[in-house]
Specification:
By secondary structure, the chain is mostly helical. Helices cover about 45% and strands about 5% of the residues. The strands form 3 sheets. A two-stranded antiparallel sheet has the order 1-2. The protein has a two-stranded antiparallel sheet with strand order 3-4. Strands 5-6 form a two-stranded antiparallel ribbon. It is globular and about 65 Å long. The termini are far apart.
Length: about 425
């Protein structure tokens, strides 16, 4: 927090004495401006701007990444300083309008750009973010952002969407909460835009009132982040959350899918103070009340078949009792991600595998191989049903039909072994 306080103090001091500094002490003014740029760089990392505005093999921030939404494909824009294909001709006001208010120079932005969360960014932070964005080297890369089919390609319709689902207001601290919790809420709701993935959406793509209760996204399930012990963060301590966001692993689990990218590109680079603030905010949330199902009995035919398949295919890494390896291979016991009602992530991981997070704190990530080529739909269904009803877990069975649908949806190959 000392570093952030110093940065805020320097910003305020600089803004209050800008005329005097520029005329009498230009060197000091330049130093203060560097603080703006450096803080803006930190904010861009917190906002994970690089992840969306960079395509595989492309130049940083040059755009071109296809985002698959339920309504079609939206391609991310070039936000480098290129004057023809980027935002080199933009003013600060145009940047602010786009990031915090969803209004670009050519019309309304689609909420795939999380302006609904970035509206929470403070005036000083958006100014510093702009200071950094202006330093990004120009890259000439023309991007066609709107590839949506009719009628979703009509940007004017977003006027009505915004009226229904966009709260265009800045973050307001809760005086009944600690400074840590409020700082965490500011980051979680704003720059880190956690609700973009973890909050369920309605049929129009707007957030529901069930904040952070888990949602499906491009073949993955972003899990519940409330304090429910069965499907959320109820068993995790503040330090567990901090360790996970810093390293991508903790004593319970390892990151997978899109969350791995978020940790590698964003949260591992946050200060300890900000990581603890995020954790403090999540631990301040009320537990979600759910009805926990009774686990299937060991006599269940699918559970028995799944146990055999698990011993053969999975126990070498996960161990026969599901304990895994701390801070490397997830502990399958009492695991909220396994207990989730939606098994999308489990199906994705088993079918196609996932790379383990490789971070500064945990440079050697353990990868999970895919079994789409090896295991039939029923075998995978049996394994997951066994895991979801063993070692303290309790969740509905997975069917061969579920596996088959997931195989087609994520482009997994058919099993070649029988």
């Amino acid at each position: 927090m000392t570093q952030n306080l110093l940065q805020r103090t320097l910003r305020l001091s600089f803004r209050n004495s800008i005329i005097f500094s520029l005329t009498a002490f230009p060197v000091y003014a330049a130093q203060a401006e560097n603080v703006h740029v450096e803080h803006g760089r930190y904010l861009s990392i917190a906002g994970d701007c690089l992840a969306c505005h960079t395509t595989a093999g492309g130049k940083p921030f040059a755009g071109g990444l296809d985002l698959k939404t339920p309504f079609g494909v939206i391609t991310t824009s070039n936000i480098t300083s290129d004057k023809e294909t980027g935002i080199g001709n933009w003013t600060f006001q145009q940047f602010d309008n786009a990031v915090r208010h969803g209004k670009g120079p050519n019309g309304h932005l689609y909420p795939a750009m999380p302006y609904t969360a970035y509206a929470q960014i403070s005036d000083t932070d958006i100014a510093d973010l702009w200071s950094y964005i202006q330093t990004i080297q120009p890259v000439h890369n023309k991007v066609e952002s709107n590839k949506l089919p009719f009628p979703y390609n009509i940007r004017a319709l977003l006027v009505f969407w915004n009226l229904l689902f966009f709260n265009n207001s800045a973050f307001v601290s809760d005086p009944t909460k600690s400074a840590d919790v409020n700082r965490g809420a500011y980051l979680v709701k704003g720059l880190e835009h956690c609700g973009t993935c973890h909050t369920p959406k309605n049929i129009f793509g707007g957030d529901t009132k069930d904040a952070f209760q888990g949602a499906s996204l491009q073949g993955w399930y972003a899990p519940d982040l409330t304090n429910n012990a069965h499907i959320g963060l109820g068993r995790w301590t503040i330090e567990d959350i901090v360790t996970y966001l810093r390293s991508g692993t903790n004593r319970y689990t390892a990151a997978y899918g899109p969350m791995t990218e978020t940790i590698v590109n964003s949260t591992q680079h946050l200060t300890d103070a900000d990581l603890h603030a995020i954790a403090a905010y999540f631990k301040s949330l009320s537990p979600r009340n759910i009805t926990i199902p009774a686990p299937l009995p060991t006599s269940n035919e699918q559970v028995k078949a799944g146990q055999y398949e698990f011993i053969v295919e999975c126990s070498a890494c996960h161990k026969s009792d599901g304990t895994g390896i701390s801070n490397m291979i997830p502990d399958l016991r009492n695991n909220p991600a396994i207990n989730a009602k939606n098994p999308d992530s489990l199906l994705n991981i088993v079918l196609k595998g996932t790379d383990g997070p490789a971070t500064h704190a945990n440079p050697t990530g353990a990868a999970m191989p895919g079994f789409d080529w090896k295991l039939q739909d029923q075998q995978i269904a049996n394994i997951l049903t066994y895991i979801r009803n063993s070692w303290g877990n309790a969740a509905q069975a997975v069917s061969a039909t579920d596996v088959n649908k997931a195989r087609a949806a994520i482009g997994a190959q058919p099993a070649t072994l029988r």
